[in-house]
Every structure is written in C-alpha cells, then in structure tokens.
Design a protein that fits this description.
The chain has about 375 residues and is of the alpha/beta class. It is built from 17 helices and 13 strands. The strands form two sheets. An eight-stranded mixed β-sheet has the order 8-9-7-10-6-11-12-13, sandwiched between helices. The chain has a five-stranded parallel β-sheet with strand order 2-1-3-4-5, with helices on both faces. β11 (about 275-285), α13 and β12 form a beta-alpha-beta unit.
C-alpha cells in the first residue's frame, strides 16, 4: 500500500458535495496525520474505491437508520480492521445506540463540528498506537467486589482500589456490573455516551479496539466501562456476553476491577468465575453479618471458597459494639482488610466526583486502599490466588 505506516487513510461517504467539501477541509487541517482522503456518494462507490489493505477510517453518512445499521454491519464484517465513524443529522439516543451496536466507534451529528471530528480522528490514532504497542497476550488480573444488598460501601472500595492501582502507573479498567443499580458514574460525575450494553450486543465480534472506544476516561486517569443506563437493556445482558467482555479486557488491561451487586446467579456468577479474587464487602452490624454468612456459604457451594473469596470489613471504628474478631468468628474466616470509617471524607469525594485517594490522599480510607492495592499487586506478581 502506498500510504506511510504512520498516516491514516480515510474514505468519506457523503451524498452532499458541499458537506463533503467541508469535511475534507477539516481533515486536511490534520496535516501529515492523513495520508489519503477519498470521497464516495453511495455505498457501492465507497466499496469500489477502497484500496487494498483496507482504509483505517470510513466516515459513513447515515440518512435512514435501518440502512445505516446494514451499511455499518457490512463494513465491519468485510473490513474488520476499519473504524467506522457515523455522521448523521439525527440526534436521538435510539439512532446512536443502534449504530454503536452495529459496530460504529463514534457518532457525529450534522453540521459536523471541526473539533468533534478531529477529536474522533485523534482517538482512532491513539487506539491504533495502543494496539501496536501493547503485547497481545496480556493476562490481566480480575478482581470483583460483591455484596448482594448494597449500602455497605462496595462501590466506594471498587472505585478507590481501581484509582489507586491506576495512580501507580498500572493499566486499569473499572467495570460497573451492578446492572440495575450501578453507581460508578454517579460517584465520578460522568455521563457516558456508551455503556456495557453497547458492547454486549456485539457478542462474538468484541475486540480490543471496540472496547477501548466505548470506555470512558475520568480526569483522574481511571478508565470506566459503565453499567447500562436503561433497565430494559440491563435485563438483556447475558452471562456469556460478560465472559466474552472480560476475556477481551484481560488482553488489554493489567487489572480489571468489577463492581457487582444483586443475587448470586447469572452475570454475577459469570464475573466471579472469571475472577482471580472476589472481595466480599460487609460492615459490623448484625443484619449485615447475617447476610454475609448466608451468602459466603452460598458462594462456597458454587465453588467460590475462601481461597478465592476474601472478606473486607468496611466502616470499622474502635467503638463498634461488634469487633472485627467477633465478625471473623461468626463468619468463620479472617478479614482480608479492615477499612476505617471516614464518612465525611467519602461523602466529600463523591460530591466532587473524584476518587478519595486522589482528592484526599491523607484520609485513613485512602491509606487502607493503598494497603489493599499493595496486596493485590503482590499476589498478582506471585501468582497467589
């Protein structure tokens, strides 16, 4: 192919010549980053002008949703190394979701804003560089957080463990698998365009590039794969889809932190089966400990025993009526870690939309998260499970 290895080849499908000219003008502002630009007025012409080696990007005009889904699916199936960026006049969530599910990596609306288009192109370049530089056989460590009922700080620990690992230079993703009550994006003040449901509909065709395109980056550097926004979409996610997503994430990330909740079946069991470690989070009150005892026994019956499931005592204070030693006796296992109670610190970090470990690193909770991260890294390095 005649294009330099470090430049992008782009084919634009656009029926309106004026709009096509405006888009080409924007692309030319990227200079040497673009090696080739071709324009086609219809999908058949687009396929004819595709050079050998496949274009890096197709900018696909979509005027009608059903045809747009078919065209996107066709391009992805015929040219799997090509990134499809949709350009449409419609701004409805239904169009965006259906085209992303079909395989589009980005969705831009007309009239095309120069900054949005150049950002999308730069994102493709970044993902290509990551694909070329990262080893293909990364075997990431999966750590799931769990409490069936919630309200014990599971998400707080998941967010801050992930943020601590990321702050140390590790490649980390936080997955919100609490499908019906996910709070990760609320804790971090994020409104993602794409969620886990955007990924799972591509079962059998999920790859690293597509996953990276739907993962949102928090200003702290933490990467998040959000829970579905719509409950109906959450209900359609299957255990098989979750296993496939985790398998691909393990090839990309060093650590995959999964925040879970709800009953012990389906997608939760799929995540736990793919996890090297499951951290069961509870607090020191009688109802919580009774619930913990019941679910730890149930997990053991599912083959998730004490070698894999570890106990986290959250919100612990010296004045608690029930002591850590009492909880260990009731539950029949030692606490993997006790996290002190610092309610105001945690509340403030959530209101700021920032992990506690970065907003208030001197907090005792932040110190506990450093200890937890240290244990996780040591175990991963030593192969201890």
């Amino acid at each position: 192919m005649f294009i330099m290895a470090n430049t992008l080849s782009i084919i634009l499908l656009e029926s309106d010549t004026r709009t096509a000219g405006e888009i080409v003008t924007i692309l030319k502002t990227l200079g040497d980053a673009i090696g080739m630009i071709r324009v086609a007025a219809e999908i058949q012409e687009l396929v004819r002008v595709i050079p050998s080696g496949e274009p890096h990007i197709v900018l696909l005009e979509v005027k009608e949703i059903e045809q747009g889904v078919k065209d996107t699916d066709f391009l992805i199936s015929q040219f799997p190394q090509t990134t499809v960026i949709v350009i449409a006049s419609e701004k409805t969530p239904d169009w965006i979701l259906r085209l992303i599910r079909a395989g589009a990596s980005e969705y831009l609306t007309k009239p095309v804003i120069a900054a949005e288009l150049t950002d999308a192109i730069k994102n493709v370049t970044r993902l290509r560089m990551q694909n070329n530089s990262e080893p293909a056989s990364t075997n990431g460590t999966v750590i799931s957080m769990y409490n069936p009922s919630g309200g014990v700080g599971t998400t707080t620990i998941a967010v801050n463990l992930a943020a601590t690992l990321a702050a140390s230079g590790n490649n980390v993703v936080l997955v919100d698998l609490n499908l019906f009550n996910g709070d990760v994006t609320a804790f971090l003040d994020l409104t993602p365009r794409y969620t886990l449901s955007s990924v799972t509909y591509r079962q059998g065709h999920i790859d690293a590039s597509f996953l990276r395109s739907v993962i949102v980056m928090h200003p702290s550097g933490l990467q998040i794969l959000s829970a579905p926004i719509d409950i109906g979409e959450a209900d359609e996610i299957t255990p098989g889809q979750i296993r496939e997503v985790i398998a691909v994430l393990k090839k990309i990330f060093t650590y995959i932190i999964i925040d879970t909740g709800g009953e012990l079946f389906g997608c939760n069991l799929a995540a736990f089966g793919s996890s090297e470690r499951i951290l069961f989070v509870t607090v020191l009150n009688l109802p919580a400990l009774r619930n913990a005892k019941k679910y730890l026994a149930a997990m053991n019956n599912e083959g998730l025993g004490p070698d894999k499931v570890k106990l986290i005592i959250n919100r612990q204070t010296p004045k608690d009526d029930i002591k850590v030693a009492d909880a260990e006796k009731v539950l029949g296992c030692k606490a993997y870690l006790s996290v002190p109670n610092a309610y105001l610190d945690v509340k403030t970090s959530i209101n700021k939309g920032e992990p506690l470990v970065t907003s208030n690193p001197r907090s005792p909770v932040a110190k506990a998260m450093e200890n937890l991260a240290r244990q996780v890294v040591q175990e991963a390095a030593g192969g201890s499970r």
